[in-house]
């Protein structure tokens, strides 16, 4: 399969050649889902990192928040998107952080 360039653009059989990941995901209709997963993965990573830095276990965080360990596990599971902002905010506060949301 040969590709040639014409005025900086690639031509050939792949219609996505030269497009951005955002453009590709938008065309596929999956951009919002991928963005939601990425956001949850970052939040779970940040919470885990804060827990480790403070030496706080899942059990201890659950006790301090007055919730179950399974709720904390859902909060820290990057693939579980069913977390409320209230839960996220409470966990962040217990770890000495705040949640900041903004529309861009």
Low-confidence stretches: 1-6
CATH overall fold name:
434 Repressor (Amino-terminal Domain)
**SS elements, strand count:** 2
Helix content: 55-70%
Number of helices: 5
* CATH class descriptor name: Mainly Alpha
C-alpha termini separation: 41 Å
- By secondary-structure content and strand pairing, the structural class works out as mainly alpha
Mean pLDDT: 83
Number of domains: 1
Describe the 3D structure:
This protein has 104 residues and is mainly alpha-helical. It has a single domain (18-94), classed as lambda repressor-like DNA-binding domains (434 Repressor (Amino-terminal Domain)), CATH 1.10.260. 56% of the residues lie in helices and 6% in strands. It has five helices and two strands; from the N terminus they run ββααααα. The chain has helices spanning 21-28, 31-54, 58-65, 69-76, 85-94, and strands at 4-6, 9-11. A two-stranded antiparallel sheet has the order 1-2. Strand 1 (4-6) and strand 2 form a beta hairpin. Helix 3 crosses helix 4 (69-76). The radius of gyration is 20 Å and the shape is elongated. It starts with a strand and ends in a 10-residue tail after the last helix. The model is unreliable at 1-6 (pLDDT under 50).
């Amino acid at each position: 399969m040969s590709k040639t360039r014409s005025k900086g653009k690639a031509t050939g059989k792949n219609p996505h050649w030269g497009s951005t990941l955002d453009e590709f995901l938008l065309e596929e209709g999956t951009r919002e889902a991928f963005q939601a997963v990425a956001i949850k993965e970052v939040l779970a990573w940040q919470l885990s990192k804060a827990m480790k830095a403070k030496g706080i276990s899942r059990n201890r965080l659950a006790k301090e928040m007055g919730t179950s360990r399974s709720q904390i596990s859902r909060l820290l599971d990057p693939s579980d998107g069913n977390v409320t902002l209230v839960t996220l905010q409470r966990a962040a506060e217990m770890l000495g952080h705040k949640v900041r949301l903004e529309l861009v």
